[in-house]
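Page 37, continued from 36.
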């Protein structure tokens, strides 16, 4: 089974959890409601994401891919670089290091998309989209810890705990405080 087929299978069997919990601590009380709020915020800026997607020769680049990454990396803050969430008007100091400064969010987003090769994607099957998104954050969860990436699956039955708390440092007891890409994609596409 390919990595894309594995993600497709996870997608097909995914259910959205009611809550994200760490021990007795409730991180999100209503995952669906929180995801709906995020999606509403994304849709308010759909034209902006479409303009970025249309900056590329590849007519297939999806605005919703850019939007989901923007949420995951920047919490939908347009003052941040799409590549890692740092301010776009400063040189980046974390992976990817040394990018920028940029003149605008859009210029930084174009840089991040090209850097990751997202402008070259032609296979928009959900399995491949999830594989690409996981790669954007890194394949370390599957490769080194044998768990599903919280970047994709937080807020679903496909993830419970384990998280890189910063680049290269993994904590098996940490729980993601973000709703994962898969939940947002389920609501957007």
């Amino acid at each position: 089974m390919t990595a894309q087929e594995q993600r497709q299978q996870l997608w097909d069997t995914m259910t959205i959890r009611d809550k994200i919990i760490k021990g007795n601590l409730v991180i999100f009380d209503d995952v669906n409601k929180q995801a709906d709020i995020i999606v509403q915020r994304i849709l308010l800026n759909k034209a902006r994401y479409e303009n970025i997607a249309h900056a590329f020769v590849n007519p297939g680049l999806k605005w919703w891919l850019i939007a989901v990454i923007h949420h995951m990396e920047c919490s939908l803050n347009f003052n941040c670089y799409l590549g890692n969430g740092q301010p776009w008007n400063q040189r980046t100091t974390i992976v990817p290091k040394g990018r920028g400064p940029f003149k605008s969010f859009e210029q930084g987003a174009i840089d991040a998309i090209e850097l990751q090769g997202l402008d070259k994607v032609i296979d928009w099957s959900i399995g491949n989209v999830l594989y690409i998104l996981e790669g954007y954050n890194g394949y370390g969860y599957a490769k080194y810890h044998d768990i599903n990436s919280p970047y994709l699956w937080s807020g679903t039955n496909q993830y419970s705990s384990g998280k890189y708390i910063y680049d290269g440092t993994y904590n098996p007891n940490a729980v993601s405080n973000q709703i994962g890409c898969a939940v947002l994609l389920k609501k957007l596409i």
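The mean pLDDT is 96. Flag for discussion at group meeting. The first strand starts at residue 20 and ends at 22.
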